[in-house]
Design brief:
heterodimer, A: about 110 residues, six-stranded mixed β-sheet, five-stranded antiparallel β-sheet, B: about 110 residues, mainly beta, seven-stranded mixed β-sheet, globular
Chain lengths: ~110, ~110
Amino acid sequence: GQNIDQPTEMTATEGAIVQINCTYQTSGFNGLFWYQQHAGEAPTFLSYNVLDGLEEKGRFSSFLSRSKGYSYLLLKELQMKDSASYLCAVREGTGGFKTIFGAGTRLFVKA
Amino acid sequence: GAGVSQSPRYKVTKRGQDVALRCDPISGHVSLYWYRQALGQGPEFLTYFNYEAQQDKSGLPNDRFSAERPEGSISTLTIQRTEQRDSAMYRCASSPGIDSYEQYFGPGTRLTVT
């Protein structure tokens, strides 16, 4: 079966750093994604990890440990516009592209 | 360039009616995905295509749901004999190539079954 767990909600302060964790159990693994979704809008791609380690892209970084079934998304220098849901997703199978999304973590950034 | 488009954006239908939801992917994109998203939840995988071939339909809830992409571009998700539990946001996403990882999502179709 497949299971993706992430916290339901988090609150952080503008200018701070926040880490959103994701654990997963899937039948096969072919990459992990993070998407951002503002209320009422479509998800937009943030990052992709297929090998262990940290991927950095501006204020956003994503980490993966395949042996632990664990990832986190790190957001630095938080801005009010970062208030959104952050979706962890896993592409499962070997050679397949079925993508399973978690329920998302709603991040509230306060002044 | 133009992004993924979906039509209609909103659809209200009576229980028992059939509905067809359309997805127009980004031009040239090979892979196309259908998802269903409930409020406050992540997208739920339904099915995906590479070109015109339906590669995986394991997420379709039952045989009332079907999808096609006959010419490898526009896709249609059809729900027959709709039920109230089918009410949700239906989202389409496309990806440039079979090995591409980034999916570009459309604005979705909000389906309400009364």
